[in-house]
Amino acid sequence: MAMSANTPHGLLLKNPSILKTSTTTAPAIHAFPITRATPKPISIKCSYSATVAAPPASASSQDRVFNFAAGPATLPENVLRKAESELYNWRGAGMSVMEMSHRGKEFLSIIQKAESDLRKLLDISDDYAVLFLQGGATTQFAGIPLNICKPEDPVDYIVTGSWGDKAFKEATKFCKPKVIWSGKSEKYTGIPSFDKLDQNPDARYLHICANETIHGVEFKDYPTPTNKHALLIADMSSNFCSKPVDVSKFGIIYAGAQKNVGPSGVTIVIIRKDLIGNAQEITPVMLDYKIHADNNSLYNTPPCYGIYMCGLVFEDLLAQGGLVEVEKKNMKKAQILYDAIDESKGFYRCPVEKSVRSLMNVPFTLEKSELEAEFVKEAAKEQMVQLKGHRSVGGMRASIYNAMPMAGVEKLVAFMKEFQAKHA
Amino acid sequence: MAMSANTPHGLLLKNPSILKTSTTTAPAIHAFPITRATPKPISIKCSYSATVAAPPASASSQDRVFNFAAGPATLPENVLRKAESELYNWRGAGMSVMEMSHRGKEFLSIIQKAESDLRKLLDISDDYAVLFLQGGATTQFAGIPLNICKPEDPVDYIVTGSWGDKAFKEATKFCKPKVIWSGKSEKYTGIPSFDKLDQNPDARYLHICANETIHGVEFKDYPTPTNKHALLIADMSSNFCSKPVDVSKFGIIYAGAQKNVGPSGVTIVIIRKDLIGNAQEITPVMLDYKIHADNNSLYNTPPCYGIYMCGLVFEDLLAQGGLVEVEKKNMKKAQILYDAIDESKGFYRCPVEKSVRSLMNVPFTLEKSELEAEFVKEAAKEQMVQLKGHRSVGGMRASIYNAMPMAGVEKLVAFMKEFQAKHA
Description:
2 copies of one chain form a homodimer.
Chain A lengths: L16 H6 L24 H7 L5 H4 L3 E2 L9 H10 L18 H18 L5 E6 L2 H13 L5 E6 L2 H10 L4 E7 L22 E5 L1 E2 L4 E2 L12 E5 L16 E5 L10 E6 L16 H6 L9 H16 L3 H20 L5 E2 L11 E6 L5 H10 L2 E2 L10 E4 L6 H18 L1
Parallel strand pairs in A: 1-13, 3-4, 3-5, 5-8, 8-9
Antiparallel strand pairs in A: 2-10, 6-7, 9-10, 11-12, 12-14
């Protein structure tokens, strides 16, 4: 991807005064390593004061691409700017967040605020613990049966895509899971009617993947376990904090951070407290929820910088008005993209059933599949990157998480129309 | 810790031209969030060009503290400046490293260079895999027996401090470990003579913690398993890359990054390739070395930003001349600190046997223990922070990892002498 062309993408135009601001930052001069840098003193002419009054956008803003990656994914521009401004010295602490003792009062203030803001965003009650862990959702695929089940316990999995399938397979090591519905034969393009599910009345839990990142299938409502003592457990990695969720319906919600709420390396687990403390004997200590809950996620050194970044994102989501407002934006973005596909007279196709199309991950193909490589290549030239579909599905995929601005989706839609006009 | 006073600590004085450089950066103006910021246009007078020629040090450099934390710990200043300069837009990619797909060519170049540089630093042969994982050394406490042993296999642990003890306890879940030597009765102040070790001839491996972070005890040489088919396995979390190590003596070396080589959230495992592929059936997929080795640490989303930071540190260590040079600096730093303790006529005391004192973590107490709180408090006023000893040991602890500059140790020693003069 050659991405050096200066194509402003309009992100900052909501507030033109920002353009003035950006240029007050001098060009980056932090050579690496510092001890080898011997830049010449810079002489600033009087004419410089004139340019400050009516500056061009800063080079760095101009160079930003629209990143449609499925995760790690685009982060809010203001969050990145905030992180940049305090990377070297966090709020007068004299050190970076990356250097802080996880037991010092500075980092404690960071993790506690992150938890508190997440509780506000999702309206999480005190009946639930919020854990900041490592290892991705994949680690929780083992952690959940290890913590919730005895080896002989039956559990139910609804498999609506690759991630649900991986979760099921991992569970076979630690309990007796059963796939009670799979979308595989229809290439994972749908979600079952809940009333037709053949749930095991003795199942300890019912597991779903709330949004399948690869296949673009999203639960719009949630099934209820028939056994009223059974738990609903959801992997929400790729739609976490993209909309309000009634947490009280779930025993456990878990999510890797790297889609909607931060960089990779942080996994968030929201678990009803009464479920904690029953881990199987073979559970590695780092997979035991009790260890982490008893130690407020500080049993060992947590992924501090990632947690800090999640905290900045949570602040930003609250500042936007919370998840009700965030969902509205996400619906709007998804709608103009799906409309463009559906109104293309078959030039573009989305294989997913309309009622369960994901607001986050939009897979689509071209009727003329031989043009797909060109589509991806031409889009990259226009600073829209990571549009290639997952290798297991092919075609294209546009991931439009919280931090993807409307301008990015609008630009993609305009490009799609141009591309169609050129190749129809 | 109030750390707002402007006390330059002399770090930059090695190269005074840097002081001129720093001030070409305008004061931080990235308000948060950007969309709410409406700063006034800045008018720069002609006289500004004069101040550029002879500027004061930038405020942020002046404010930097000496951070003696045991981990997460201080990072090289030039690495932080580099990270700051490319946080928002990595080398023209149009995005932050935190936003990059882990399967994109940009991040692949980052992780591959990090691995290649680490191989150079430690002279790691192709017989070994290098894995970038998550979950800290604590996760490996389970991962090692799960991957190397059958449940009935005997293994030996030498326990020279809290971390070795934790590693042993976790192993009891997955094999038959035995503590063949423990320093507990002597409060973990020594290391055994290797010839007196009562090794089990059938042990699958011999485990050590190469440097005990809490107790300040460090192996200067390594024991050899009596069974020539047994492996030597070392947790090197707190002295990783602080000196050259003959990797070929070990079956596995593992380390959390957050002491010498990066932020928390990255765990590095160096494992002889022939040991991979024998995990017990109950091994969670994320703890199976084969999964990670077969996928070059990209089975699932790795902690990308942490790996990037480690890569910057590896570059910096190579630029310093590699680990031979790094060890010389570490020996010098440790020597002036231990000398100050030993020459204090008992005012300061280090409980650890001289021959095995850690170059990284220097625990010490005051003869007048009632002054210890004051010592820590007064030091913090002088911008030397995180000197309080671990809660299980008490007293003080100065962690002086690779990135702690000599100036920091010199300042601490000067402070210790002043403090002694005041209170002797």
